[in-house]
UniProtKB/TrEMBL annotation, chain A:
Domain annotation EAL: ranges: 537-790
InterPro entries: Biofilm_reg_signaling, EAL_dom, EAL_sf, GGDEF_dom, HAMP_dom, Nucleotide_cyclase, Rev_trsase/Diguanyl_cyclase
This protein's record includes keyword Transmembrane helix: yes
CDD domains assigned: EAL (cd01948), GGDEF (cd01949), HAMP (cd06225)
UniProt protein name: Phosphodiesterase
Family matches, as SMART domains: EAL, GGDEF, HAMP
Keywords, comma-separated and alphabetical: Membrane, Transmembrane, Transmembrane helix
Keyword Ribosomal protein recorded: no
Chain segments annotated as coiled-coil in the UniProt record: none
Domain HAMP: 313-365
Entries under SUPFAM superfamilies matching the protein: EAL domain-like, HAMP domain-like, Nucleotide cyclase
Domain (GGDEF): residue spans on this chain: 397-527
Automatic annotation (TrEMBL), chain B:
UniProt entry tagged with the keyword Signal: yes
Organism listed in the record: Lacimicrobium alkaliphilum
InterPro entries found in the cross-reference section: CarboxyPept-like_regulatory (IPR008969), Cupredoxin (IPR008972), MauL (IPR034242)
Domain of life: Bacteria
The name this protein goes by in its record: Methylamine utilization protein
Annotated Gene3D superfamilies: Cupredoxins - blue copper proteins
Alphabetized UniProt keyword annotations: Signal
Region forming the signal peptide: 1-19
Length: 794, 214
């Protein structure tokens, strides 16, 4: 199969669409991937955010807990100091020493130092009831700070000589239940000793303590001193919320996060605890969680992608198979089995494609039937006839081509209806098919035209074959109680004698067939001379209109004789075409053409006008002649004709001398209602109406009765041999009787001898025309003839 | 009981000399009576000394000092008997009299002379709640207010200084001192400026109970 332009276009289109649009599979995968990416991103972001917040919260909580732990530890130390002091204060000996403190300070100091060592304090002193210093375990010269003892609660810090101490004081009452305080025992622990490495193990954070804001000086830290120095420089934000700071660690700068908390009270405000930890360590669980999450999502994405590929393959693979199948179907290669699928949708698509293929097959057969066979008769049609002929020419020699049509089949259709016509065609086909000749191919070419091909062998000759065909139609056809006798025209052409290709042969056969018409021959074998007419026919079609304008058409007049008195009452106007090249062209060659092309109306109009013009001329010359003009059935089917006639009447002083219109039976029968209306109108205008060729058609007597006609014109077929043929005489008598009974005038045409004329006169026919009186003559010759008439007839 | 001793001492000292009655009323800052407050009059003039061998008693009953507050003239000897069945360790670190009586029970220690004036705060080294006071005054004219915060003292005419003392009084002792010229019976009202210290009711109630019973 060579690629037709349409196919190339389809291929290009599909290629383009492949480039511009993605496949279903990649589109599905794309959507899947996008969705997956979205889920992964959303999950990651959400989890990341949540876990970060959680981790941050945990770190903050850790810092808070650490603050609580450290505070608790310091408070415990403070309580421990207090309870140790309280025990000391209740000791009788202590009371005794204090009571005697003024006198024996040395003993008191010694005992105090001893006790200070026991409770692991760094500094202690005793105040008397008036808060005057009794003794102190240090020799620093600074005065001991004023302490508002009654208000002291919780952790208390005191700055003594530039160092911060945790302070505890208990009152001493010489008599325990006395409301009076007799002395104060005070112990202090250096803050630096409270911030120990132990706190790191307790809190898992680095702990530092700073002097009250705004000074915020670093007092002690679990950090090594280089780090502590950096930390000291800050800048630091004193808040419970997490803060970042970069501190040196293991030779590099590391991000730390820290939070701070107040602890205790001093005259300057609370001290600041600061808890710091390496950020990475704080977010360790968070970082590993995110890492695991990403790993899980990547694995999930890979699994989902694999699943998507499998699913999309499950959809697209059967689709691709179906596409291959449909492509095959498109190329006309039908497949035995359309691939099935377990998927419901694909399966129904597959079923649909299968059904479509069946449908296409079925329709292809029907189309083939329609393309190569005639629906009515079941015979091969023109296409197959042509193919068959083509084929035959390559394989056989000689080949005989017969073209056949039924004469006047149109009349049968018109008068008996298409139903009868169709039945007739079927019967004709049947008879043709039944012809017992080997290698005979019969086809209906259209209408009433049949074609036969015979692959010539020695069993017959073309002539004999044609006769065989003609014989088939000798028997009349019986259709719905009608008996029809058919005349055939058969043209025969022989390969290779008359042509070497189908079209030439068919043309030759056609020409031969047309040559039969009008010659009353059943068949003719092609002869080159016949070709002359066929070529004329073609050019005449186009030349007729210009012939009208250029005056190539002439009216010839054949006189009509009143049989009663022998007077010339009028003339039948007959059209003649004198072609400048072809010469005389008979009307039966171009009138049917004019009817086919519709030019007949112009021809009729021209003929009417010409006739009336001539009538006027004769009228002026003192001759009153009735003019008879033939009109075509086509002139009757529209209502223009009465108007045209009326128009001409007004142009040529009315209907002087009279106008007769001759109409064939079949013209009236094809559309009786319309025709009768037109005729009624013409009749009312004084036009005489005559039925032409009466007796040859298939007139219905009932219709005839209704028709508004004046006269019947007996066909020349009955008149030509009237003198010798008794059957014709009976027929003419019958027809004349019929006309008489219907009150119609009669005209006989084709009178060629005196005895016929005498017979007609005897039989009571009104008028006669024919070669015996005169052939049709040009107007001038008619004048001449008329001058001589009385002499020649006498 | 305090009253009994006061009356006893008063009668003992005042009978030979006919004196004038000085009635003292001690009131709190919000005008309530202060019962048990120690009141005494001192003078520039020579006042009668305490008799040789005068002995007062500060007992220990039910793990309390009894009386809670004891007022004696300077030079009086005070014995510290132990009416309980357990040992006590009575001591004082007060400057007026510093002493201790090591743990004792049945064998009553000898009475101790109280020659210095002032407040002596008593405690027991083994019973922290035990608290007692001895006011040593250099005058025979002293006493303690009754439930209504009243005290009547009979003194000869002359110039005196009235002193009001009590462990719960927070006012500076000097500020409560009042110069009094006794020429006839007279009423003196001492109003505290500061509220009393809370607590110590235990001792007073005990005291009152005992008074009631005897």
């Amino acid at each position: 199969m060579s690629p037709s332009p349409a196919n190339v276009e389809t291929m290009t289109h599909s290629l383009l669409s492949k480039l511009s649009s993605r496949s279903l599979r990649s589109r599905m995968l794309m959507v899947f991937l996008l969705l997956l990416a979205l889920i992964v991103v959303v999950t990651l972001v959400t989890v990341q955010k949540a876990t970060y917040q959680h981790s941050t919260g945990q770190v903050r909580d850790h810092a808070k807990t650490s603050a609580i732990v450290v505070k608790d530890k310091i408070r415990n130390r403070s309580n421990q100091l207090a309870s140790a002091l309280a025990t000391l204060a209740k000791d009788f000996n202590t009371k005794q020493l204090i009571a005697g403190g003024r006198q024996d300070q040395e003993s008191l100091l010694s005992a105090l130092k001893n006790h200070q060592r026991r409770i692991d304090a760094d500094l202690s002193w005793v105040l008397d009831e008036n808060h005057q210093l009794l003794t102190v375990t240090t020799n620093i010269s600074t005065p001991m700070p004023e302490i508002d003892f009654p208000k002291k609660t919780g952790i208390t810090w005191q700055d003594i000589a530039g160092r911060y101490y945790l302070l505890e004081a208990v009152p001493v009452r010489f008599v325990e239940s006395s409301p009076k305080v007799n002395a104060w025992l005070i112990a202090a622990v250096d803050v630096q000793r409270l911030i120990t490495q132990e706190l790191i193990t307790l809190t898992d954070m680095q702990v530092s303590i700073f002097s009250p804001a705004p000074e915020g000086k670093l007092i002690a830290s679990t950090f090594a001193s280089p780090v502590a120095n950096v930390l000291q420089k800050g800048p630091l934000t004193w808040t419970e919320e997490l803060q970042q700071i970069w501190l040196p660690a293991e030779g590099q700068s590391r991000e730390y996060i820290y939070a701070s908390a107040d602890i205790g009270n001093s005259p300057d405000g609370p001290l600041k605890l600061l808890f710091a930890t390496i950020a990475d360590k704080a977010y360790l669980s968070y970082n590993s969680l995110i890492g695991q999450l990403i790993l899980i999502l990547v694995i999930a994405a890979l699994l989902a992608l694999t699943a998507a590929v499998i699913i999309s393959n499950g959809i697209t693979r059967p689709l691709t198979r179906l596409v291959n199948v449909t492509n095959k179907i498109r190329k006309g290669q039908y497949v035995e089995e359309v691939p099935k699928s377990t998927t419901l949708e694909i399966s129904s698509l597959s079923t649909a494609i299968d059904e479509m293929q069946q449908g296409i097959k079925q329709r292809e057969l029907e189309i083939q039937q329609m393309a190569y066979f005639d629906a009515l008769t079941g015979l091969p049609n023109r296409n197959q006839f042509n193919n068959q002929l083509q084929q035959a020419l390559t394989q056989h020699r000689p080949v005989v081509v017969l073209m056949m049509d039924v004469d006047r089949f149109k009349d049968i259709n018109d008068t008996l209806g298409h139903g009868i016509g169709d039945q007739l065609l079927v019967k004709i086909a049947s008879r043709l098919s039944d012809i017992e000749v080997d290698n005979l191919f019969v086809a209906r070419l259209g209408g009433d035209e049949f074609g036969l091909i015979w692959f010539g062998d020695n069993s017959s000759t073309p002539k004999r074959l044609a006769s065989q065909v003609v014989d088939v139609f000798k028997t009349p056809f019986d259709i719905e109680q009608l008996r029809l006798d058919l005349d055939l025209s058969i043209g025969v052409a022989i390969y290779p004698d008359h042509g070497d290709n189908p079209s030439t042969l068919i043309q030759c056969a056609d020409i031969a067939m047309y040559s039969c018409k009008g010659h009353h021959r059943a068949f003719a074998i092609y002869r080159p001379e016949l070709n002359k007419y066929s070529l004329q026919r073609l050019s005449l079609m186009s030349e007729l209109r210009s012939a009208l304008a250029e005056g190539q058409l002439k009216l010839y007049y054949q006189p009509k004789l009143m049989l009663a008195d022998g007077q010339v009452s009028g003339a039948e106007c007959l059209i003649r075409w004198i072609h400048p090249v072809h010469g005389f062209i008979p009307p039966d060659q171009f009138i049917p053409l004019a009817e086919q092309t519709g030019a007949i109306r112009d021809v009729t109009r021209w003929a009417l006008k010409e006739a009336m013009h001539q009538q006027q001329k004769w009228s002026q010359a003192g001759l009153s002649l009735n003019m008879a003009v033939n009109i075509s059935p086509l002139d009757l089917v529209d209502m223009q004709l009465p108007d045209i006639v009326a128009d001409l009447f007004s142009q040529y002083n009315g209907n002087q001398g009279g106008l007769t219109l001759e109409v064939t039976e079949s013209a009236v029968m094809s559309d009786p209602d319309m025709a009768i209306r037109a005729l009624e109108k013409l009749k009312s205008m004084g036009v005489i109406l005559s039925i032409d060729d009466f007796g040859t058609g298939y007139s219905s007597m009932a219709q005839l009765k209704k028709m508004p006609v004046h006269e019947l014109k007996i066909d020349k077929a009955f008149v030509l041999d009237l003198a010798t043929n008794s059957e014709d005489q009976i027929m003419v008598n019958t027809l004349l009787g019929l006309a008489r009974h219907l009150g119609l005038k009669t005209v006989a045409e084709g009178v060629e001898d005196a005895s016929s004329l005498a017979f007609l006169k005897r039989a009571g026919c009104h008028k006669a025309q024919g070669f015996y009186m005169s052939k049709p003559l040009p107007a001038a010759d008619f004048d001449m003839w008329l001058k001589n008439y009385p002499e020649s007839s006498s | 009981m305090i009253l009994r001793y006061a009356v006893f001492v008063c009668c003992l000292l005042c009978l030979p000399v006919q004196g004038m009655e000085v009635r003292v009323s001690v009131q709190t800052d919000d005008a309530r009576p202060v019962p048990g407050a120690v009141a005494y009059l001192t003078s520039e003039q020579p006042l009668p000394q305490v008799n040789e061998g005068a002995v007062a008693e500060m007992d220990q009953i039910n793990k309390q000092f009894s009386p809670h507050i004891l007022v004696v003239q300077k030079g009086t000897q005070i014995s510290f008997p132990n009416s309980d069945s357990i040992q006590h360790h009575v001591y004082s670190f007060s400057p007026a009299k510093t002493f201790q009586l090591q743990l004792y029970k049945d064998n009553n220690p000898d009475p101790l002379p109280f020659d210095g004036t002032g407040k002596v705060e008593l405690g027991c080294n083994v019973h922290d709640w035990m608290l007692g006071y001895i006011y040593v005054v250099d005058t025979p004219y002293f006493g303690q207010t009754d439930k209504r915060g009243l005290l009547a003292l009979n003194v000869p005419a002359g110039n005196y200084k009235l002193h009001i003392r009590h462990p719960r009084i927070q006012d500076q002792p000097d500020k409560l001192d009042t110069e009094v010229t006794v020429s006839a019976a007279q009423n003196l009202v001492v109003r505290l400026e500061q509220p009393l210290l809370p607590g110590l009711e235990d001792f007073e109630e005990d005291t009152d109970e005992f008074i009631g019973y005897e």
